[in-house]
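Q: I have two molecules that I believe assemble together. Could you output structure tokens for the complex as a whole instead of separate predictions?
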Amino acid sequence: MSNISVFPIIIPFFTGILLIFFHKHIMIQRIVSVVSLIVSIIISLILIDTIKKTGVQTLNLSNWEAPFGITLVSDMLSALLILTTNIVALCCILYSFQGIDQDRESYFYYSLIQFLLVGVIGAFSTGDIFNLFVFFEVMLMASYVLLVIGGTKVQLRETVKYILVNIISSALFVATVGYLYSVVGTLNIAHISKRLSEVENSGIITVIAVLFLVVFGLKGAIFPLFFWMPGSYYAAPIPILALFGALLTKVGVYSIARTFTLFFSANEYIFTLLSILSLITIVLGVIGSLAYNDIKKIIIYNILTAVGVILYGVAAFTENSLIGSLFYLMHDMVIKTALFLLIGAIFAASGTFHLNKMGGLLNSHPALAWTFFIAAISLAGIPPLSGFIGKLMIIQGGFEKHDYCGSFIVLISSLFVLLSVIKIFIKAFWGTKTKAEKPSIKALLFPSIILVCLSFFMGIFSESIYSYISLAADTLLHPTNYIEAVLKE
Amino acid sequence: MKTNDLILQTITKIIIFLILLFSVDIFFAGHYTPGGGFVGGLMTSAALVLLLIAYDIKTVANLFPVNYIYVAATGLLIALVTGISSIIRHKPFLTHAFNKHVHLPLFGETSLHTAALFDLGVYLVVVGVTMTIIQSIGEDK
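A: Yes, here they are, computed for all two components at once.
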């Protein structure tokens, strides 16, 4: 019985509380949050190593046996996601030193980021469906405040929408958990999975599956439930937007992957539905990212495409497609943050988000230009970079399922994704200079360079990462491993 | 027009102690009977709100010169430390310790449980959050 799986949750929680006491001292806040995130990264590396050596780590909180208490389950999937989350958050905080104003910083900004991390990491590592709900709420509460902090008009308007949508989806989540509880009589995810496999495949389980799809789809922004995302995300300041874009939708995606593979893996209907919806999500994301001339909007719609691609891999549910999805999930968290931070730097350099008003940044900011270029081709999935392997394996999985149409859509979508980001590159960096002065953006550029390097190494060393990710896909593919680890049979 | 709320203020002075005592009673009764940190905290803040109605924000701030945000943070800290203390004893996070037979000088034999400390955390968070909400809404002119 080791407590290591609880540390990734405790550390940001403790830091968040500590930072409340120092909310007027900005320097202390910055130092403490960076130190705490570095410690978290080290701990998640240790956690990954432990899981690699000894298998799935479970921790029965309060020392109650598995189905009766809350269990924290850290398998390779959640450990990898925790590591990625911490790295992404560290880079966003480094960006915030320059990228966010002092007013926001002194109103609990760093505290809120830590509480957001508590929610996200908690959602990744919990083994209890109601505890998952609670961590969703922790995450959402922090995100409400992060979205509205600063109190500009557009933020206020979009926060109202965002809160409304999420309150409704949270209420639906509770109702769904209620239905599920009335069918199986337990809340522990592993135990639910076991009980559901004993129940005959009745209609009510399909209904619950669709309800879960609606709930997590609202959080994870899939077609028809993504309508709140472009507007709400557009309102947030850049580092907050980067955090949201990298973490919040991915928690929804993770929950779909976790619940569907554990609860409904025998249900053909729900996987077909998920596959169709994710393909439509891809198409809509691509259309959105091509339609706009606003760099923020373009990247926001690219989130949608990525969510679609990942979920298509989950829906195909072969070994290759699952490994591909997980690879793509991690890649996308890293590269989306990099892209958001980069468009923040572009905004700082050119003073506008509108493509037609900028140009000629290649001469004044070459480092920014080439970092953006590498991030852009990595997003599209050009071979040596990290976006390639994931998409390749997802498409491979699609072909194994003889779903040629779906694989083709995923393939074509890469082309349009590339088009949408190269459009930014051509219009913002080529051409003639529109602005005389040359603002220094070194501090803003530095975190995204870290992330782009990381993405580059993920691509180069994909062979060694592969062994970790195939372990992660293994628990998704064979739920019995997960159930046995939790229920100790 | 300045109204004279002599009756309200006098009654408040008496009632407030009853409410505070009742909230403490509910807080400590939580383990065996209905009650606990949440209701106890709400009732304590109800007492403070009654003071706010009878007097004004400045008087109450003079009476209890605390920043309620820090009260909430202290509560969170207490709850978290209760959880962490079990890690130090090499038990899973949040494993509570208890002793059924503790002889306290005045109370005689009592049973003590670290869940009460966790409850104290909840209590402080509830008081802190409620009072922060009410004060910051009330301060707007």
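A: One point stands out. Chain B touches chain A at residues 69-70, 72-73, 76-77, 80, 83-84, 87, 91-96 (CB under 8 Å).
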